[in-house]
Every structure is written in structure tokens, then in C-alpha cells.
Design goal:
119 residues, mainly beta, Immunoglobulin-like, ten-stranded mixed β-sheet, globular, binds copper (II) ion
Length: 119
């Protein structure tokens, strides 16, 4: 998991974007099943689809990372959405986020700190 960052929305908006890269150095496929944090009501994983010349966001139920590869979540591609802050979240803060994942039949979670950036 590298370069985790949360980008605040413009004033008056509630939903922040999140980016990071999921790496898999193991020999078994890694399945990212979801993320959670006390700082937001929920976190969704999204992808962008082209639809009739428009970019539309679609929620992903999971993200799989093949052995030896990584999947980057970045602007204009797959990304996270942090929905409804549970308190004030400001640039310069960091937010602890639990990443829930499965490797084969085993599930686990890992805590990652997202740096909060202004838009
Ligand atoms: Cu989105």
C-alpha cells in the first residue's frame, strides 16, 4: 500500500477522494474487499466508465491485485470516495483507514494513514 492520500472536496461538498496504490508481493491473488475509517461514514471504491462520451463513476464491490503486480488508484481512474465526514477533516491532518482484504481463503485487515491534502 503506497502513497495513501485523501483530497478534500471544494467548500460546501461532503465527499472527499482518496488515492493509493495496492501492491501484491505475494504469490497469491490479493482481493481488496473494502475500506473503513472512523473519520467518515463510509468509504467506497469507484471506477470511471466512459458512457456515451461521458465519464461516469461506478462502485466496485472489490479490487483484485494479481501476484507480483500493483493497482494504482489515481485521479481520473479507480479511486476511493470518503463519504460524510464524522468530524472536521482538514489539510495537514492524517486519517487512519482500515483496509479489509483477502489472500486466498484468509481475510485480514491493515491500517494505513492517509495524508489529507487540500484540493
Ligand atoms: Cu467516485
Amino acid at each position: 500500500m503506497s502513497d495513501p492520500r485523501l483530497v478534500l472536496p471544494p467548500p460546501g461538498r461532503d465527499t472527499a477522494a482518496g488515492y493509493l496504490s495496492f501492491g501484491n508481493q505475494g504469490g497469491t491473488p490479493l482481493l481488496i474487499q473494502g475500506l473503513s475509517t472512523a473519520a467518515y461514514e463510509r468509504v467506497e471504491m469507484h471506477t470511471m466508465d466512459h458512457e456515451g462520451g461521458m465519464m461516469r463513476m461506478r462502485e466496485l464491490p472489490s479490487i483484485s491485485v494479481p501476484p507480483g503486480e500493483s493497482v494504482a488508484l489515481e485521479p481520473h481512474g479507480k479511486h476511493l470516495m470518503f463519504i460524510t465526514p464524522q468530524g472536521s477533516v482538514e489539510a495537514g491532518d492524517s486519517v487512519e483507514v482500515q483496509i479489509h482484504y483477502a489472500v486466498g481463503d484468509a481475510t485480514a485487515q491493515k491500517t494505513v494513514r492517509f495524508a489529507v491534502e487540500a484540493r
